[in-house]
């Protein structure tokens, strides 16, 4: 569990601890931002500091509270998340929250409830949480964490103080990523591919994710050369459909940026420029927009659990790509 926030979160962190130390931290925070921006280290550092008995700027790491947390169990922390393959946080999990809030803290300090991903609470769960959010009792801190806060019920959002994290400037994130990847050029490249999201960039630069991107690149190349889409789909593992669509969306956005501006500096995946130029010979920007809408909708359906067969989604998606590339 992270004890310190990430380097570019320093200003946010200062504000949080000022509020905490002056007793003005609200009892419910909604912390949001896209996946890969670094919500977890900030949340974990805040939980640790809240449960620490002798906090400085960050949790001390030494006290009984810190040691319990470090060992993976603190009686005054309740974490609610997705269980196994479920895509929803259900009302029984929130009833446990309500029971937990009704007790006094065992260690005499704060009780902390972390709910993540908060947007996974179904309507019954959300409604059950409202009562605790309205009457939380003394020294209780709710931390709701969400990639897409717009999917929370407005009644939940309005009872939380909302902290939305934005992507750091490249000069803030690059040194951190360079330390992790061991190379400045790699750090710049992957940060750009990840749209400026540092933790996502680190993930994409990992071996498995790199291989998937390479496979997709070869597939894209094959389609540009007139390859047969359903046959080519076999190169990819349909279980990675969400990531495949994510890349496809990013590449289409690049094609649109390039088509509208003519400026190769605008693209995020600079290594794909030769393929983009090839692809742009046959299709127009408005075709890319249409395909982009389709890809976004498919990705949304996949995330909502609405489409049971990833292989079919993948094939349908590649058939559309290839139709544009060949026209
Ligand atoms: Zn401590």
Task: Name some characteristics of this structure.
Zinc Finger, Delta Prime, domain 3; Rossmann fold; alpha/beta; five-stranded parallel β-sheet; 15 helices
Q: How would you describe this protein?
A:
It is a single chain. With about 325 residues, the chain is an alpha/beta fold. It is about 55% helix and about 10% strand. Helix 7 (about 170-180) runs parallel beside helix 9 (about 200-205). It is elongated. The chain starts with 9 loop residues before the first helix and ends with a helix. It binds zinc ion (ZN). Zinc ion binds near residues 53, 54, 59, 62 and 65.
Task: Write a short abstract of this structure.
The chain has 327 residues and is of the alpha/beta class. It has 15 helices and five strands.
Distance between the termini: 52 Å
Q: What ranges have pLDDT less than 50 throughout 5 or more consecutive residues?
A: none
Secondary-structure element series: HEHHEHEHEHEHHHHHHHHH
- Structural category: alpha/beta
Output mean pLDDT: 93
| Overall structural domain count | 2
Strand content: 5-15%
Unique bound compounds: zinc ion
- CATH class of the largest domain reads Alpha Beta
The strand count comes to: 5
CATH architecture of the largest domain: 3-Layer(aba) Sandwich
Globally, the shape reads elongated
Radius of gyration: 23 Å
Instruction: Give the number of helices.
Output: 15
């Amino acid at each position: 569990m992270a004890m310190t926030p990430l380097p570019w979160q320093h200003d946010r962190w200062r504000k949080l601890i000022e509020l905490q130390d002056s007793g003005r931290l609200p009892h419910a925070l909604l912390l949001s931002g896209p996946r890969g921006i670094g919500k977890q280290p900030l949340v974990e550092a805040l939980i640790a500091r809240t449960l620490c008995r002798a906090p400085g700027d960050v949790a001390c790491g030494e006290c009984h509270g810190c040691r319990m947390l470090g060992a993976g169990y603190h009686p005054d922390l309740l974490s609610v998340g997705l269980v196994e393959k479920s895509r929803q946080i259900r009302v029984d999990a929130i009833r446990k929250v309500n029971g937990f809030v009704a007790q006094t803290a065992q260690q005499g300090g704060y009780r902390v409830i972390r709910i993540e991903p908060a947007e996974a609470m179904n309507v019954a769960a959300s409604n059950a949480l409202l009562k605790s959010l309205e009457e939380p009792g003394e020294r209780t801190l709710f931390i709701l964490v969400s990639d897409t806060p717009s999917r929370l019920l407005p009644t939940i959002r309005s009872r939380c103080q909302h902290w939305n994290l934005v992507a750091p400037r490249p000069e803030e994130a690059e040194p951190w990523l360079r330390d992790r990847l061991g190379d400045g050029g790699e750090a710049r490249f992957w940060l750009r591919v990840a749209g400026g999201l540092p933790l996502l960039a680190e993930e994409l630069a990992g071996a498995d994710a790199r291989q998937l991107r390479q496979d997709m690149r070869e597939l894209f190349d094959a389609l540009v050369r007139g390859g047969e889409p359903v046959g080519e789909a076999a190169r990819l593992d349909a279980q990675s459909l969400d990531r495949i669509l994510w890349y496809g969306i990013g590449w289409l956005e690049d094609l649109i940026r390039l088509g509208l501006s003519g400026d190769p500096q605008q693209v995020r995946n600079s290594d794909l420029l030769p393929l983009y130029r090839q692809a742009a010979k046959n299709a127009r920007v408005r075709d890319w927009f249409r395909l982009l809408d389709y890809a976004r909708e498919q990705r949304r359906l996949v995330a909502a659990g609405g489409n049971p067969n990833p292989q079919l989604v993948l094939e349908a998606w590649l058939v559309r790509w290839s139709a544009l590339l060949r026209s």
